[in-house]
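Write out a record, fold above all:
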Amino acid sequence: MAEKNRSQNSEYGELIDFLAQKFDRIEKNFDEIKTGLGTKADKSDVTQLRNELSSRITTLGDKIDDYRADQSGPRSQINEHREWIDKASPKIGVKLPG
């Protein structure tokens, strides 16, 4: 059980590191835009920035959804195989522990 938790923490750690890198890049882009704008921004600059940020957040959300989908597939397959083994073992005369 502890090994499973370590594995999950490692996977989530990778996701957190990935997201942190993405947000760092976004923050860097904000800094560059702010520097480029100086002290005055017009409405089109703000709209462009908002659209870019919205697009990047949507992309990150999609990647998180894909990651979750990738993680749920193997778990359901393992559970399905476990059920098959539990059904087949008495028929072939194998007693499983637990």
About this structure: The chain has two helices and no strands. The mean pLDDT is 80. The first helix runs from residue 2 to 37. Helices lie at 2-37, 43-92.
